[in-house]
Amino acid sequence: MSESNFVYLTKxxxxxxxxxxxxMKSTGRKDMAAKIAEARAHGDLSENAEYDAAKEEQGLxxxxxxxxxxxxxxxxxxxxxxxxxxxxxxxxxxxxxxxxNDKIIEYMLVSPxxxxxxxxxxxxxxxxxxxxxxxxxxxxxxxxxxxxxxxxEILSIK
Length: 158
Hints:
Shape: elongated
Number of strands: 7
Strand content: 15-25%
Helix content: 25-40%
CATH superfamily of the largest domain: Transcription elongation factor, GreA/GreB, C-terminal domain
Order of helices and strands: EHHEEEEHEE
Number of helices: 3
CATH class of the largest domain: Alpha Beta
Radius of gyration: 21 Å
């Protein structure tokens, strides 16, 4: 398997995903089967919208299980203590200043599977994440993003 196929996760996130998968495979599948059985009991399947909706929900549910299994099969646990603090890398928490509006933002760079913009976690594969990787405190970074050209100054790395 090539390096690019790996999914880098923290130990905590790996445990969360394993727990979610186990829950989905056990009680989740039983609940899904019960929904389908209940919808089937409502009569003619050819005109039963509730049955069609339950089958579609089951398809999406199984797709999520498949995606989790794929992520977990390619997972590599990363230890944040193995990286230096003088350069931005995966799991770095960086404080950056937007040079256009002087707004200071803090982001943690994570794998795409862990990204959660609302929680301040951006994917290292995002335009901003790619622009920050390998940079040091004090450097200025110009990033071409969907919102336009962004300019940042790196204030701190944790």
